[in-house]
Design brief:
heterodimer; A: mainly alpha; B: Rossmann fold; FAD/NAD(P)-binding domain; five-stranded parallel β-sheet; 21 helices
């Protein structure tokens, strides 16, 4: 690591050593991402079709191509600690168009998986887990929606756990099996007290 | 593996007790061999004498640098070979194919009176001819050589299993020695070669090949499926990197082809059937019904001074209008048409799929020329040629299959071939580049490179189409030159400017003001009002997504083999690689040859090539195709089947099985027996494997030889 040069913080950040070194690369990371994603991130030739297709890229700093590059090089820390990892909407446009037939979306999902194992996950994602646990929905129905549904001739609640709450225990069973709820609760508590 | 090891060990332990024992058995088994009988006159005494001789085999193990020696124990293989019965001499060398390596064989044959040679090295596809020559130089018949492949099928695939690969090499050597002991003298057959050649496809490759063959004094039949020669190159405006006009350099060649006394030109024709073999191909040409007589054809019908002179009177009166394929559908043509004014031959053609037979053209043509025959039919012409060159070329990949770029959905998205016609002075717009939607001159043009190339999705083509980078640079130059203020944007992944003066051309175009954006185009959307296009991509070098508003998009579409390639290649017995391009005999050392003797490849039908490479490959193919013709005769491998007449029951079952029509039944001494036309036989063994009476003897792959090999493998050399 570069030594502090005693500049103000903003400048210090700009002037820190930008290079990456061989020891940052973890070949096991490339392998793990490949195994979990069941796709071929190592075949990426960086054409940018993914970022060009990405609806998130024009309005955020999220660059799917960058994550593909990190997967190729095994830059584990850089991938998992980058908050952009959580900006993918999983629309699969990149996967549809990738000329190398890679599924970049699944690569991102694999990285999120690995990040979660290290407790690196934004709180809002964990709150989604809690919402699913309590209602069976990541985004539960609300009165505005209910009114809108009624207006177009639908039932107030969709035919999901909202209409059949008796199925919620089954969903909880799945989440409990993977300790997802317990981990979410624990991390939220650690962060928010 | 474990089982195989056990076999090897078994041999080693039993070798002492066996020593020279099996040799006599071999001689007995060999006894009924009639193989040499038909040849007896050509090979006096020697055959019989060597058969009765006890086999004395020399085994040479090649290191191939570290290719083989790096993954197995060469001394152990050599040591093992020396213990095999019948092996008289063993040696090893770093590169057996080198001069010192080959002279080892020569010397050992003399010093040790060897009767057979085994070289354990690479694939016979690579060096069998080399070592056959060495065997011949040592004074043995070249067919007394057998190769054990311990590289491609061993050291390269078992790189990390030293013990296993050594054991496998021992097996391979043992098997080869077993066959070498039973090898016989064989004499290649020579057949005369017809002093004429055929070239299929008259694009720049086919024309160049035909001109070269004709210049070498060879009668050449040039067959072209379209109505005119010239091919893709005649559709282009300028050529990179010199920027000379394509038509200006091509049309003189077209005229030369039309004029050459040694070239017999068949346009609007296809190959219908091919029979025969190198030196003697019988090719049937289908001359499609053209509806218009050439002056020669008119003369043959007794119409003096008649036939088409290209005046175009018929064109003027024809009421049927169709899109002109030569102009990629951007210009109309009539049902009676020529592609463009410079066509060779200058003979009109009737498109009978759209002709309504109104007869106006017949009247317009007049009673003197009488060139039009609305009732003309396909004609079949048979020619005999010694060799043939395929130069079938390419088509544009149907790029509308990549829906994200909107070709055929958005009017202002065109392909590069359409661009060539639009920018060409003789094209539909007289050389003015315009937007198809409104005829306006574009001010911003985006070029999409690798459109469908380097694409592994299954919808595109996995290969690089190889000339799109360079013609897109040329297009950028043409825009800057012709439309002041117009900016070309090139979306690229890599600029592959690999040829002579190509990188310099890239430098020049960049200097002229073309903008290069490193990023593949993700998708294109049309503004429905203005018909402008939004090109979306990632500027990977800036790491920012880009939305570029342009007037025109040019897709540098991938190329694929010409639609009819597959049918034509099958007629000539030529293989193709996975991507459909025709398969060369060797990608580096024999790029013009094919695995079918006497058939060669020129130009893009083998793989994407630019014009310089296409012409070079055509000249190479012409040179290769002229060799057998100038030599006057070719040697055929003596692997043909022969009939043991005493055993043949004359059932004739083999005759129908033979894929090469090489067998027939003949009357001999009052009964029917099978007879082989050796020049046609390819030695495939279909008949030999089938014959219920065991009456067919496959030279060089005889039943005793193969049984000995199997025994050597399974029983470890005991028989």
């Amino acid at each position: 690591m570069a030594r502090s040069k005693g500049y103000p913080e903003a400048l210090e950040k700009k002037l820190h050593d930008q290079r990456y070194f061989a020891d940052e690369s973890n070949p096991a990371f490339t392998k793990d991402v490949k195994t979990i994603s069941r796709t071929i991130p190592q075949m990426c030739y960086q054409c940018g079709t993914c970022t060009g297709s990405c609806p998130s890229a024009p309005r955020s700093t999220y660059r799917i191509r960058k994550f593909m590059r990190r997967a190729v090089l095994g830059l584990e820390n850089e991938s998992l600690t980058d908050p952009d990892l959580w900006l993918c909407t999983t629309c699969y446009s990149c996967s549809d168009r990738c000329p190398r037939d890679i599924l970049p979306t699944d690569t991102i999902m694999a990285m999120r998986n690995l990040a979660f194992k290290k407790d690196i996950v934004p709180v809002n994602f964990l709150k989604t887990v809690q919402a699913i646990y309590s209602s069976g929905h990541g985004v539960p129905n609300n009165d505005v929606n209910r009114a809108a549904r009624e207006k177009i001739g639908l039932t107030r609640d969709p035919p999901t756990t909202h209409m059949y709450p008796e199925y919620i225990p089954a969903i909880r069973k799945i989440l409990d099996h993977y300790k997802l709820k317990a981990n979410a609760d624990r991390i939220v508590k650690e962060r928010e007290g | 593996m474990a089982e195989k090891k056990a076999t090897t060990k078994k041999t080693e332990t039993k070798k002492d007790t066996k020593k020279v024992a099996p040799v006599k058995d071999d001689v007995k088994k060999q006894a009924p061999a009639p193989a040499a009988k038909p040849k007896a006159a050509a090979a006096p005494a020697q055959v019989g004498s060597t058969i009765k001789q006890e086999p004395r085999i020399g085994v040479f193990v090649c290191h191939c640098g570290t290719n083989i020696a790096g993954s197995m124990d060469i001394p152990a293989v050599q040591e093992y070979a020396s213990t095999l019965p019948g092996v008289e001499y063993v040696d090893n060398y770093q590169y057996m194919c080198s001069t010192p390596g080959q002279s080892k064989i020569d010397k050992a044959i003399h010093d040790h009176k060897l009767t057979g040679i085994v070289v354990a090295a690479c694939s016979p596809r690579l060096h069998e001819p080399t070592f056959r020559t060495a065997t011949k130089e040592g004074g043995l018949n070249p067919f007394r050589f057998e190769m054990a492949n311990i590289r491609e099928q061993n050291s390269w695939v078992h790189m990390h299993d030293r013990e296993g690969s050594t054991d496998k090499a021992k097996d391979a050597v043992r098997i080869a020695v077993a066959k070498a002991k039973l090898l016989q003298d064989l004499y290649p057959k020579t057949v005369p070669v017809e002093k004429s050649a055929m070239v299929v496809g008259a694009g720049v490759a086919g024309m160049q090949a035909a001109l070269d063959l004709a210049a070498a004094g060879i009668k050449t039949y040039l067959v072209e499926a379209d109505t005119s020669i010239g091919g893709r190159m005649s559709q282009l405006d300028k050529t990179f990197p010199t920027l000379d006009c394509s038509q200006c350099i091509l049309t003189p060649k077209m005229v030369d082809v039309g004029r050459d006394q040694n070239i017999e030109l068949y346009t609007w024709s296809e190959i219908e059937a091919v029979e025969g073999y190198i030196g003697n191909f019988d090719v049937t040409i289908r001359k499609k019904a053209r509806g218009v007589l050439t002056p020669k054809e008119a003369a043959a019908r007794g119409i003096v001074g008649g036939g088409c002179n290209g005046c175009g009177d018929c064109d003027a009166v024809c009421p049927v209008v169709k899109p002109n394929d030569f102009e990629v559908g951007m210009k109309p043509r009539k049902a009676i048409y020529i592609n463009h004014p410079q066509v060779v031959p200058l003979i009109y053609t009737i498109d009978f799929n759209s002709c309504i037979k109104c007869g106006l053209c017949v009247t317009a043509c007049g009673s003197e020329k009488r060139a039009i025959d609305l009732e003309s039919k396909d004609e079949f012409i048979k020619v005999k040629v010694g060799t043939a060159i395929l130069a079938t070329g390419y088509d544009i990949f149907p790029i509308e299959k990549k829906e994200e770029w909107g070709y055929k959905k958005y009017e202002n998205v065109i392909t590069s071939l359409e661009f060539e016609r639009l920018i060409c002075a003789s094209g539909p717009t007289g050389g003015h580049l315009v937007r198809p939607s409104d005829g306006q001159t574009p001010k911003k043009v985006a070029f999409v490179l690798c459109a469908g190339s380097r694409d592994n999705t299954g919808t595109g083509k996995p290969y690089c189409s190889r000339f799109c980078c360079m013609y897109s640079l040329k297009h950028a130059h043409q825009i800057i030159e012709k439309i002041p203020g117009c900016v070309p944007y090139l979306f690229y992944m890599d600029i592959r400017s690999f040829g002579k003066m190509y990188e310099e051309f890239y430098y020049r175009i960049q200097d002229e003001g073309a903008k290069f954006i490193r990023g593949r185009v993700a998708n294109i959307l049309e503004d429905p009002k203005t018909k402008n296009l939004h090109v979306h991509a990632d500027d990977t070098l800036l790491d920012r997504p880009i939305d570029l508003d342009v007037d025109l998009v040019v897709l540098a579409a991938a190329i694929q083999p010409k639609a009819d390639t597959n049918r034509t290649r099958k007629l000539f017995g030529v293989s193709c690689s996975m991507d459909g391009w025709l398969l060369e005999a060797h990608p580096k050392l024999n790029p013009c040859g094919t695995t079918t003797a006497g058939v060669f490849l020129a130009g893009v039908c083998q793989a994407p090539k630019d014009i310089p490479d296409t012409v070079a490959s055509a000249e190479g193919a012409a040179s290769a195709a002229s060799i057998p013709i100038h030599k006057g005769e070719v040697e055929l491998e003596p692997y043909f089947a022969s009939c043991i007449e005493e055993r043949c029951a004359g059932c004739g079952m083999c005759v129908n099985l033979c894929p090469y029509s090489a067998l027939s039944l003949v009357e001999k001494e009052g009964r029917k027996v099978m007879q082989v036309t050796e020049a046609k036989c390819k030695g495939c063994g279909t008949c030999g494997g089938f014959c219920p009476g065991g009456a067919i003897w496959m030279n060089h792959f005889t039943t005793p030889q193969i049984v000995a090999q199997i025994d050597a493998f399974l029983l470890g050399g005991e028989q």
